[in-house]
Amino acid sequence: MADCLFCKIAAGAIPADIVHADEEFVAFRDIAPRAPVHVLLIPRRHIPSPGDLGDGDAALAGRLLVAAARIARELGLDATGFRWVLNSGADGGQTVPHLHLHVLGGRELGWPPG
Ligand code: AMP
Prior knowledge:
Elements: H1 5-11, E1 18-21, E2 25-29, E3 37-43, H2 58-74, E4 82-85, E5 101-105
Antiparallel strand pairs: 1-2, 2-3, 3-5, 4-5
């Protein structure tokens, strides 16, 4: 989508600290990290939010989780643990309307979220 920040990052039109890129997904470090490791994993395809996933997206959603697990391992988080977060819509705290999975780790994370 032309005016989507994360579409532009996926296309290379806006710089980001990319940690993984393949045909379907891109992962890059969050510009305002909330943990020592904070990476965002996005599909290249513009899906506005988790709430927009439909039946036809089941395979993509599965591959998204597999890619997130691989990225967590590659970032060295699997030994100590990590958290995935998917915010959806205003009440969910979503600020960028392109589906993204947060991979957070490198310290003990509090629960429940504020
Ligand atoms: P959310 O609040 O779940 O929509 O998460 C959006 C995330 O995108 C926030 O954690 C922001 O810090 C992050 N963010 C916004 N702009 C950029 C950018 N240009 N590069 C990397 N991360 C960004």
